[in-house]
């Protein structure tokens, strides 16, 4: 249709107007974050800085303030993502390739696990960690984070693995390869992009998690950035909003970059949500 | 033999997910606490925690606050605004779509602690909202104290709408354009096409999304904890925040565990309804 009716044109105008308005409203808190980070005299309100300065970033880029917490975040998230992906690949293989009686109950259990409100569990998890003497243990925290991301990871890994054709493996079986060598030599190399997506997905989740390390870790030198930002706010929050904003941005950049990467791999950000469309 | 690779997953899930669930049920029947004699050996107290819980005026209040938070921010806010944005994006130009997409999704992608601080700053007495209101001559109040629930509800809509928007955008792409076009030819108005054609055709996405946003919102903790700390008093303590306050701020671990157990039961109930009603494919 070459012609556009007047009503359609006005609909387009209204749509654009409403969208720009909503977009601006959603942007306000984010704009504050960016402006405050380059303003030496930042307040809690949006205001143009008198002079753009990187002083806030210089102030927070010290080992105690930013580098150690960010390193701890990296250890927790990477440790959690590595364990999760390895365990999820192992579990997904028999679920994807064999018809076992355990498949259905296991996958329903896993789906049920993805729905559990993890924040509701933190009080009993704390008691359990006290009982096992795991409080303030990085290892324990990594294992707990891995267990909570595992249900979603198994589900995603299995669906990626289902789309890897089984013919190549059959040839390997003919040659007498074991299950493990078929998995590591043939299946895993074929699904590397899918595994990267699962890895990044889990990594982003662990990197952004505040409540779990907040409850399970105590020593200041073990706290990840999420918790140290909260502590920083309690200590200097009322005077150094600019530094708080600068630290928050430093901490956010990796996950934003990873998110953009994943949405490129999957072809548009809607693919992530499309996976749960049902 | 073939199920051996499942073992690591089962071990992790049993110890770190099933373990806390079981110990939550058990712990809610003990007088465990963080300090004092009960911190050493907790003893079995039957339903005492639950009796105390239902007698405590904070608990029914918290249940109500949680319901208000769920309905206003997830069921109405995120879903209606998310669907609205997804629909508007189909009849808009690329620039407007880009602006909305970038900012709505950014609020969702940011780590929760950062998003919580940005929302805190926005609603603070000296924050952006009051600066803007002052510019048009309105004297704003201290939103985080005067209307804490309103502030956290709006913040959660801001934080979570992207998810619904992405789900509905994907769903709308699957609606064949011929159907709405033929309805248009038959003289159906815009809102009639929306209510009688588009919405029924994506109802499966709507029910899935309602369930998922409900479950996500039920476990929102950081946003409320940072913005209001559950306060003033317990005026914005939803159940996860109340469980934390009772267990870690007032040292009543058994009491907090009882709240956690109730939350787990509610979450489990929602999940079972979800899994039964929608039967996601597991093969």
Keywords:
heterodimer, A: mainly alpha, MetI-like fold, 13 helices, globular, disordered C terminus, B: mainly alpha
Could you describe the 3D structure shown?
The complex is a heterodimer of chains A (278) and B (283). Chain A is mainly α and 278 residues long. Chain A has a single domain (55-251), classed as MetI-like (MetI-like fold). Helices cover 76% and strands 0% of the residues of chain A. The two termini of chain A are 34 Å apart. The model of chain A is unreliable at 269-278 (pLDDT under 50). Chain B has a single domain, classed as MetI-like fold, CATH 1.10.3720. Helix content of chain B is 73%, strand content 0%. Chain B starts with 6 loop residues before the first helix and ends in a 5-residue tail after the last helix. Chains A and B meet through helix 1, helix 3, helix 4, helix 5 and helix 6 of A and helix 1, helix 3, helix 4, helix 5 and helix 6 of B.
Produce the secondary structure layout.
The complex is a heterodimer of chains A (278) and B (283).
Chain A: H1 6-37, H2 55-60, H3 63-97, H4 103-115, H5 118-131, H6 138-162, H7 167-174, H8 179-190, H9 192-208, H10 211-216, H11 225-236, H12 241-265, H13 270-274
Helix pairs in contact in A: 1-12, 3-6, 3-9, 3-11, 4-6, 6-9, 7-8, 9-12, 11-12
Chain B: H1 7-27, H2 48-55, H3 58-90, H4 94-109, H5 112-123, H6 128-135, H7 143-146, H8 148-173, H9 177-185, H10 190-201, H11 203-218, H12 222-227, H13 239-249, H14 253-278
Biggest interface between chains: A-B, 97 and 101 residues
> Helix coverage percent of residues of chain A?
over 70%
Task: Give the distance, in angstroms, between the N- and C-terminal Cα atoms of chain A.
Answer: 34 Å
Tell me the count of domains of chain B: 1
Order of helices and strands of chain B: HHHHHHHHHHHHHH
For the secondary structure, the number of strands of chain B is 0
Question: Roughly what fraction of the amino acids of chain B lie in strands?
Answer: under 5%
- Rg of chain A over CA atoms, rounded to whole Å, is 24 Å
Please outline the major beta sheet of chain B.
Answer: none
Structural classification of chain A:
mainly alpha
Query: Average pLDDT across residues of chain A?
Result: 87
In DSSP terms (H or I, runs of 4 or more residues), the helix count of chain B works out at 14
């Amino acid at each position: 249709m070459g012609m556009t009716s007047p009503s359609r044109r006005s609909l387009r105008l209204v749509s654009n107007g409403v969208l720009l308005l909503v977009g601006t409203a959603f942007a306000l808190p984010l704009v504050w974050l960016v402006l405050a980070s380059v303003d030496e005299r930042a307040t809690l309100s949006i205001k143009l800085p008198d002079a753009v300065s990187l002083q806030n970033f210089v102030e927070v880029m010290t080992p105690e303030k930013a580098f150690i917490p960010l390193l701890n975040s990296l250890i927790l998230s990477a440790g959690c993502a590595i364990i999760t992906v390895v365990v999820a690949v192992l579990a997904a293989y028999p679920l994807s390739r064999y018809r076992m009686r355990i498949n259905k109950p296991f996958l329903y259990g896993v789906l049920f696990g993805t729905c559990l409100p993890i924040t509701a569990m933190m009080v009993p998890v704390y008691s359990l960690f006290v009982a096992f003497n795991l409080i303030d243990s990085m290892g324990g925290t990594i294992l707990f984070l891995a267990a909570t991301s595992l249900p979603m990871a198994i589900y995603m890994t299995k669906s990626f693995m289902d789309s890897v054709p089984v013919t190549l493996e059959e040839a390997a079986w003919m040659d007498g390869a074991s299950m493990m060598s078929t998995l590591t030599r043939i299946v895993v190399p074929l699904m590397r992009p899918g595994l990267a997506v699962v890895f990044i997905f889990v990594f982003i989740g662990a990197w952004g998690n505040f409540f779990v390390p907040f409850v399970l870790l105590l020593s200041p030198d073990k706290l990840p950035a999420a918790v140290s930002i909260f502590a920083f706010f309690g200590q200097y929050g009322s005077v150094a909003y600019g530094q708080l904003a600068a630290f928050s941005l430093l901490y956010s950049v990796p996950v934003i970059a990873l998110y953009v990467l994943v949405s490129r791999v999957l072809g548009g950000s809607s693919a992530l949500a499309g996976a749960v469309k049902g | 033999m073939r199920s051996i690779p499942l073992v690591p997953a089962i071990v992790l899930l049993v110890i770190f997910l099933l373990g806390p669930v079981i110990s939550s049920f058990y712990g809610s029947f003990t007088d465990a606490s963080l300090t004092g004699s009960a911190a050493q050996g907790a003893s079995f107290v039957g339903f005492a925690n639950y009796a105390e819980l239902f007698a405590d005026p904070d608990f029914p209040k918290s249940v109500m606050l949680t319901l208000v938070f769920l309905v206003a921010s997830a069921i109405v806010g995120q879903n209606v605004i998310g669907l609205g944005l997804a629909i508007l994006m189909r009849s808009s130009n690329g620039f407007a779509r880009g602006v909305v997409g970038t900012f709505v999704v950014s609020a969702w992608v940011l780590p929760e602690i950062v998003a919580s601080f940005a929302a805190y700053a926005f609603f603070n007495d000296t924050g952006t909202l009051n600066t803007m209101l002052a510019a048009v001559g309105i004297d704003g109040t201290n939103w985080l104290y005067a209307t804490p629930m309103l502030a956290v509800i709006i913040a959660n809509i801001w934080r979570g709408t992207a998810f619904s928007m992405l789900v509905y955008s994907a769903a709308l792409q699957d609606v064949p354009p011929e159907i709405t076009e033929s309805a248009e030819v038959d003289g159906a108005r815009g809102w009639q096409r929306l209510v009688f054609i588009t919405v029924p055709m994506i109802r499966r996405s709507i029910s899935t999304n309602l369930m998922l946003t409900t479950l996500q919102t039920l476990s929102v903790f950081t946003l409320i904890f940072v913005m209001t700390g559950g306060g003033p008093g317990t005026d914005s303590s939803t159940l996860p925040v109340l469980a934390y306050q009772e267990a870690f701020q007032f040292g009543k671990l058994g009491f907090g565990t009882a709240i956690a157990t109730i939350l787990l039961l509610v979450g489990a109930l929602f999940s079972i309804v979800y899994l039964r009603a929608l039967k996601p494919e597991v093969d």
